Target: DUF2238 domain-containing protein
Amino acid sequence: MAAETHGGLAARLWQEAVRTLRVDGPLPARLLADAAALLTLLSLVLGLWDSTVAVALYALVLLGQTVVRLAPLRAPVQAGTAVTLLFAAWAAMLDAYQLIPWLDLMAHVVATGLLAAIVAAALLRGGWLRPGSTATSAVRTGQTLLTAGLGALLAVLWEVGEWFGHTLLDPAIQVGYEDTVGDLAAGVLGSLLAGLFLDRLVKDGPWP
Model:
């Protein structure tokens, strides 16, 4: 009886986890998000035979994809963000950023912008912030500046993480003045663009 009870509880927890983490939307978006998740898990397992940096990086990507699935983004945006995070990790591990310099900036523009949109939407829909004006233009300006500011913070944290990894884990992780400044500028640009189009990225709008 106890075994059946535990089995039923485990089944219910699994069903709830699947329901919570499911990407609701068009079938292509769902399949793309699920494929990105499976490939991230596979990359994480293979990373065990590679290096500590690989394990840490893919674990971070997997965490990011989980957050993306919980975020109130439109399904195509969720799928696109999941793919972007995995692509950025693969590019880093394959040294693609050294071969194609602009690829690093593009990754920072897209990834930082989408992550900033997630945080901004969470704050706005959670009721943490309320519009001080009923004017649509003022509200849009506020949410754009909020998203850009959050993206700037995320960009700084990203660069701190790269410095931490370079200093304590692997000197091969690229850091430097030009790289850092370029990445920060790209992250802020991506976040500003995400703020301008926040209504189109967030499901049912960013405001509750």
